[in-house]
Amino acid sequence: MRFQIQYLFKYFFKILPYLKVTIEYAGLSLLFGLIFGSILATFKLQKNKVLKYFGVVYTAIFRSVPPVVLLFLVYYGLPQLVLNLFGIDIQNEEKILYVIITISILSMVSLSEVIRSAYISIDKGQYEAAISTGLLPVQAMIRIVIPQMIYVALPSIGNIVIYLIKEGSLGFTIGLVDVFGKANSLNQNSYSNYILEIYVALALIYWFSSIILERALKLIEKRVSFGR
Amino acid sequence: MKLDFNFIRNTFIAVLAGVPVTFKLVLVVLLFSIPIGFLVAIVRMGKEGVLSKILSVYVSFVRGTPAMVQIYLLYNAFPVVIMKYFQDKGSGIDVYGIKGLTYAYFILSTTYIAIMSECFRGGLSAIDKGQLEAAKSVGLTTFQGYYRIVIPQALAKVLPVLCNNVTGLVKMTSLVFAMSVFDITAIAKTEGAKHTTYVEAYLVIAVMYITLNLTIELIFKILEKRVHKYAGT
Questions:
Q1: Is the model's pTM score more than 0.90?
Q2: Does B1 reach chain A within 8 Å, measured CB to CB?
Q3: What's the structural domain count of chain B?
């Protein structure tokens, strides 16, 4: 058995369309992560001890659990919990839901740390100056503070997106058909005859995606640095 | 939802058998990846040279692909092909005879050498070149310059990242079930499947991982305070 380059191409293009599943869960998890991560970050910035410690403990717990264990817990535990609390049966929901929930929790925790340190890095004077020129607090945040925070946080957010894609690849362990799941089923259907070609193709797809993401991020950073 | 506490206790006892495996994985991989990762970082600091280029491709690959893909590639795919090759040649080498644990050490180490090298590279490049030059100018050798001047300063910068990497490694060992190594996750998986009480099984090991990782973070916090004096201003 030899490594056959034409099969590498064949499987590369067979697997590639399933990247949209990966993009779907990564995109949604980033969105939820940003929303809930901001809330968690505000908790951690509070003077109120209860909220602050809730944020700190929540972060410590979910940062320490391996993603695969969290995924299994969500996959097996959440349907029971929801059924008992609300009487809704989500057992037959699509698998991607559990992956999105798991990756959202992971991204929420990492993003809350990024958002928190970005907020701290912006001088308080910026907000105060905005208020003193007559802007409302909401305006001061949206127009002055948050744009500067985005500039500070962008490199870390890019790394988190790559991290989300990589951890989301574990979805195949609960039966999600993304690029990894597709590669596994292609391998079974061909009786492992092209096992090396298939997994090299899969690795290349992930590798190229993260290189493209990194490049794109560099470009965006340049644009956002406008005026600096 | 009712948790079966009887089962929680039983799983906890069963899972304890996997604790040494998880510890062994973490320690062996750190033992390999810290020194070799440091060497890789030093080679990559000098930008020219073929070796530096090759190493940067390797680091990019490891960082750009999921750990599970690397495991499938090195544990599932390569041995099949290599075995066929050996059989064709009539060689008696048996690749399948290698234990899963050996693969786990190897694969986790290759991943962590790359991750550690990035961490060390960040730390070393934060130290001004003048420090090493000054050390050399007072008569220290390059090795002494690194050992006495550069590394202590870099250490202070590197420790927080190193802490992240170690806890990341603990989390990554949870993937070795794919190489039929029975660490705590793999045992919880089989125990959960045996009694169809997955939630209890995974809760038990989640608590174990949290305890382990928070302990590691605490140790690093103490270390950080100790090396803080090298950090300079």
A1: no
A2: yes
A3: 1
Which residue segment(s) compose the domain that B169 sits in? 7-230
Is B1 inside a domain boundary? no
What would the pLDDT profile of B204-215 be if each residue is shown by its tens digit? 999 999 999 999
Q: For residues A115-138, give the mean pLDDT.
A: 89
Size of interface A-B (CB pairs under 8 A): 116
Tell me if B70 and A1 make a contact (CB, 8 A cut-off): no
Task: For residue B181, give both structure tokens.
Answer: 């190594």
Q: What is the pLDDT of residues B184-194, one digit of tens each?
A: 999 988 888 88
In a domain, B89, yes or no: yes
Contact residues, chain A, for B171 at CB < 8 Å: 64-67
B44: buried, middle or exposed (CB in 10 Å: 19+, 13-18, 0-12)?
buried
* A214 → chain B, closest CA residue: B64
Category of B91 on φ-ψ map: left (φ > 0), alpha (ψ -120 to 50) or beta:
beta
Structure tokens at B124: 């070393």
Q: Is B205 on the interface with A (CB under 8 A)?
A: yes
CA–CA min distance A184, chain B (Å): 10
Using the beta-carbon criterion (under 8 Å), do B199 and A76 form an inter-chain contact?
A: yes
Q: Do A61 and B210 touch (CB under 8 A)?
A: yes
Residue B124 placed within a domain: yes
Residue at token pair 């979910």? A62
Which CATH number characterizes residue B136's domain? Answer: 1.10.3720.10
Instruction: Report the alpha-carbon distance of residue B164 to residue B159 in Å, rounded.
Output: 9
Q: How far is B199 from chain A (nearest CA, A)?
A: 5
Domains of chain A: 5-224 (1.10.3720.10)
Nearest neighbour of B185 by CB, restricted to A69, A166, A206 = A69
Structure tokens at B133: 């030059």
C-alpha B57/C-alpha B54 separation (Å) is 5
Domain annotation covers residue B111:
yes
